[in-house]
């Protein structure tokens, strides 16, 4: 009788699980097409390295990632055990590991026993951590988390109970290979009557079955969907750094950006299923950290909720708007505008969710389809379109700074390197000094270089990150035309934003440029001995700040540090958050041009962090960071100077 | 009912320089923009369209390249744009300009009743603020200048109530329609064009009315019809200033010297 019941229960539960999965995963089909299969070899390698190797969870100094690694691998082994259990439930008496030759069964029994112990331990550690040392983000202590942890613990206990009863019954041939179960049997069940032992065995078997099937059916409805979606999402990850956004085609009848859930690609939707709610993204987000409405994890969560609400066909409810806010599943405009596109969220995400492109896509929709933008941006957009600079300053003033330096104009066919000064370097009083310093360095290095002067145009970085792709597209065309006409192939930039845009965004327009940031250039020149330094220039405590668009976006961490070491004779002091965990200055993603009304100012937060190291100098490599640090320090009145790397080097030239 | 918005394409005056030898404007390489004040006029027209269901026609007199500005108006939501362009219209002052615009508005009025003409307060190149009032006078419309808020439009009673911003006070005025309204920057915040509209505007029709269409007498339009003739354009010479004291080292002392000098020159008095 019980045999039939187990077959029915197992079959029903497995079918229900498959049905739930089907209902969820078919919703992905409403997303737009995107090729994420190319280069399968590298993708498989990614899965092996990041998922199975658990590189994704133990990276970035997350010590508790090791707990996940243990749990992950215990699960992998228990997956085998539980598959057997389920098949046994479906086809009782036909399938069991114990039917295998003992040379296979015995080692397997040991392995499963060990995995169960480790899983139980890992779960206990996870529960203890959440109760005793709660992580900053509140989600770690959600009901969902405790239900799942509780279920796993119960599953392990049922497993040991079942095996202990079997051993006590004398029904377990491999008892000596199950030390924990055997210990439990000999301690608690030694004197049990055959009847009661049989009862225990039945009871534990059913407990195990119910918890396992319950867990299985809870998965698709909880954050533990990542068990199903996480590994595939690693497979489908972007194989290159996510440092750009895709182009849009401007044609009548097209829509722009993402304003509705079905305008994401299927991968964009799949990201939302993969989220483990680990909270690392929000933990590293400068907006979240300083009290803004934006929380990258919630953006992904809202996308998932919106998909589940709006995705199913023939639904009767009215559509939940994707953008607008107000309730779960809808993202407010303020959230979207708060992003600095610093990429910290994507850097630490263990399942390679791409937050920033989604935010930019939604910004695109706001700008291009409904022109709903913060007031400050209206003048920025006009200025960019009319005068190709953010302030709307007359273009003829672009070359004014050059009067104070020894600068030549780029001549087609003669000059080798273009020094692309950028809007800050050309117009901003403080950054002009950096331009002069760079000119000096370029002259000392003996290369052939020149500027475009008043013909230089803005690269369009802010517009692209703010979602004004239409005007960005035009600016790229204009710049490309100039670069082609003048035969410009090699470009040295002052600003990491110009650097990233010319290097990574312009490539989509067929512009293969050799773009070099001044930190890279200086490092190369010092190494090759072309720049001669006048001994050591000690600048006291020098703290270095990583620019997001150099570091996280383009992996340039070592060049500036190595230059500082060469010039000052010692390595820079690192802030608590540095390199790939560096904290944004607050100006990226077009935030430079917007008011920051909510919460603490990001630049103040970062300036205070720098001051903890008691610096005499804060070294930056980006005009945005420069402005943000100088502003951030103003309120604090610290006697600290903010210098660009180029200024430090320029003063150390022989 | 129709709202006619008058716009002008102007050289970006912050980038214009005067040739010191010939005394003429150096127009080469200077970009043209829509007269900034007119963007507020257009925005107000579009808001009234959304609120009351008017049609919005945008008219502009100028050289053929004015088409760019009119396309911008289309991308923002104007229903119809008309370019008044003819060599014979060239060199016009405000008298001759207002004639051509007023005649164009009359012509538009033949097919649709005109409720309002909305203009910017002035242009940034001529700075006269005369064309709007000129149109009102010629057409016999109510003349509402310096408007910073439209309070109400009563389509049944054919009246409009606006707020005028005068020195030190506001004035709420009711006037019969049709009316000419010249608006201030404070009246609204112009919108930003959405991309589908920009693409639509790229090849939407721009109606051209030259003098064959308008049929105006040659001596009433263009340079011939103008009462004003520009004799010379020049940059005012500014006398070189004088540095008083050492403001960097001794700012207080320098300020004291400055105040003393201003008192001596009778600019400040105690």
Explain what the structure shows.
The complex is a heterodimer of chains A (654) and B (270). With 654 residues, chain A is mainly alpha-helical. Chain A has 28 helices and eight strands. Chain A folds into three domains: 2-18 and 38-235, Fumarate Reductase Cytochrome B subunit; 266-372, Alpha-helical ferredoxin (Fumarate Reductase Iron-sulfur Protein, Chain B, domain 2, Orthogonal Bundle); 379-651, no CATH class. Chain B has two domains: 2-220, HUPs (Rossmann fold); 239-270. Chain B has seven helices and 13 strands. A nine-stranded mixed beta sheet of chain B has the order 11-10-9-12-8-1-6-7-13, sandwiched between helices. In chain B, strands 2-5 form a two-stranded antiparallel sheet. In chain B, helix 2 (67-76) packs antiparallel against helix 5 and helix 3 crosses helix 4. The model of chain B has no long low-confidence stretch (mean pLDDT 92).
């Amino acid at each position: 009788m019980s045999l039939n019941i187990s077959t029915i229960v197992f079959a029903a539960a497995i079918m229900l699980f498959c049905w739930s999965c089907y209902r969820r995963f078919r919703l992905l089909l409403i997303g737009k097409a995107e090729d994420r299969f190319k280069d399968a070899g590298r993708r498989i390698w990614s899965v092996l390295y990041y998922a199975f190797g658990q590189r994704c969870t133990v990276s970035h100094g997350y010590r508790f990632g090791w707990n996940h690694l243990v749990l992950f691998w215990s699960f992998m082994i228990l997956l085998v055990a539980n598959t057997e259990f389920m098949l046994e439930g479906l086809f009782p008496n036909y399938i069991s590991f114990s039917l295998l030759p003992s040379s296979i069964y015995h080692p397997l029994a040991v392995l499963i026993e060990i995995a169960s112990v480790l899983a139980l331990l890992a779960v206990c550690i996870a529960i203890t951590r959440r109760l005793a040392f709660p992580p900053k983000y509140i989600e770690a202590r959600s009901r969902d988390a405790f239900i799942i942890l509780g279920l796993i613990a119960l599953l392990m206990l049922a497993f040991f109970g079942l095996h202990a009863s079997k051993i006590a019954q004398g029904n377990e041939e491999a008892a000596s290979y199950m030390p924990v179960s055997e210990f439990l049997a000999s301690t608690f069940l030694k004197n049990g009557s055959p009847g009661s032992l049989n009862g225990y065995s039945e009871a534990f078997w059913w407990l195990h079955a119910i918890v396992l099937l319950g867990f299985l059916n809870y998965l698709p409805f909880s954050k533990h969907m990542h068990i199903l979606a996480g590994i595939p999402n690693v497979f489908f990850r972007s194989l290159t750094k996510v440092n750009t956004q895709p182009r849009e085609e401007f044609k009548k009848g097209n829509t722009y950006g993402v304003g509705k859930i079905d305008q994401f690609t299927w991968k964009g939707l799949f990201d939302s299923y993969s989220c483990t709610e680990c909270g690392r993204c929000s933990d590293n987000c400068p907006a979240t950290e300083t009290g803004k409405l934006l929380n990258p994890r919630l953006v992904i969560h809202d996308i998932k909720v919106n998909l589940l609400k709006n995705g199913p066909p023939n639904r009767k409810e009215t559509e939940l708007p994707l953008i607008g806010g107000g309730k779960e599943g809808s993202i407010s405009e303020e959230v979207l505008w708060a992003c600095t596109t610093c990429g910290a969220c994507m850097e630490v995400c263990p399942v390679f969710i791409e937050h920033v492109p989604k935010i930019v896509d939604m910004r695109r929709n706001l700008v291009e389809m409904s022109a709903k933008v913060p007031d400050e941006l209206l003048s920025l957009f006009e200025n960019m379109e009319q005068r190709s600079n953010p302030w709307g300053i007359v273009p003829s003033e672009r070359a004014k700074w050059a009067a104070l330096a020894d600068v030549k104009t780029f001549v087609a066919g003669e000059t080798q390197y273009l020094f692309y000064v950028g809007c800050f370097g050309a117009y901003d009083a403080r950054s002009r000094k950096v331009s002069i310093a760079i000119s000096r360095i370029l002259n000392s290095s003996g290369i052939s270089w020149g500027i475009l002067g008043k013909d230089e145009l803005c690269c369009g970085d802010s517009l692209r990150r703010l979602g004004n792709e239409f005007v960005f597209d035009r600016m790229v065309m204009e710049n490309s035309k100039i670069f082609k006409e003048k035969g410009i192939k090699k470009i040295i930039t002052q600003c990491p934003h110009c650097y990233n845009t010319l290097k990574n965004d312009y490539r989509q327009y067929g512009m293969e440029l050799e773009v070099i940031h001044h930190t890279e250039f200086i490092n190369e020149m010092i190494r090759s001995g072309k720049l001669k330094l006048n001994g050591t220039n000690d600048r006291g405590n020098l703290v270095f700040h990583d620019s997001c668009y150099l570091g996280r976006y383009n992996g340039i961490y070592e060049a500036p540090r190595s230059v500082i070491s060469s010039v000052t004779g010692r390595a820079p002091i690192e802030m608590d958050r540095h390199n790939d965990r560096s904290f944004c200055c607050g100006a990226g993603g077009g935030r430079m041009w917007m008011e920051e009304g909510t919460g603490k100012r990001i630049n103040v937060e970062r300036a205070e962090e720098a001051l903890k190291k008691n610096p005499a100098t804060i070294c930056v490599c980006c005009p945005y960071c420069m402005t943000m640090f100088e502003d951030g320090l103003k309120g604090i009145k610290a006697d600290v100077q903010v210098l660009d790397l180029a200024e430090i080097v320029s003063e150390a030239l022989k | 009912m129709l709202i006619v918005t008058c716009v002008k394409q102007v050289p970006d005056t912050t980038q214009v320089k005067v040739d010191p030898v010939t005394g003429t404007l150096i127009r080469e390489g200077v970009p043209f923009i829509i007269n900034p004040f007119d963007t507020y006029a257009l925005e107000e027209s579009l808001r009234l369209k959304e609120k009351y269901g008017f049609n919005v026609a945008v008219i502009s007199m100028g050289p053929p390249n004015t088409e760019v500005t009119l396309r911008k108006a289309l991308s923002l939501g104007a229903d119809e744009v008309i370019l008044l362009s003819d060599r014979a219209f060239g060199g016009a002052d405000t008298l001759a300009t207002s004639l051509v615009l007023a005649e164009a508005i009359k012509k538009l009025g033949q097919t649709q009743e005109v409720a309002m003409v909305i203009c910017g307060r002035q242009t940034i190149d001529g700075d006269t603020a005369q064309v709007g009032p000129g149109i009102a006078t010629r057409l016999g419309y109510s003349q509402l200048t310096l408007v910073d808020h439209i309070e109400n439009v009563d389509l049944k009673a054919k009246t409009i109530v606006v707020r005028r911003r005068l020195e030190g006070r506001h004035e709420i005025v009711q006037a019969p329609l049709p009316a000419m309204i010249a608006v201030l920057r404070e009246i609204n915040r112009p919108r930003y064009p959405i991309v589908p509209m920009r693409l639509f505007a790229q090849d939407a029709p721009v109606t051209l009315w030259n003098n064959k269409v308008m049929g105006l007498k040659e001596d009433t339009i263009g340079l011939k019809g103008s009462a004003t003739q520009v004799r010379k354009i020049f940059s005012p010479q500014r006398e070189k200033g004088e540095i008083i004291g050492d403001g960097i080292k001794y700012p207080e002392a320098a300020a004291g010297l400055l105040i003393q000098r201003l008192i001596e020159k009778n600019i400040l008095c105690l």
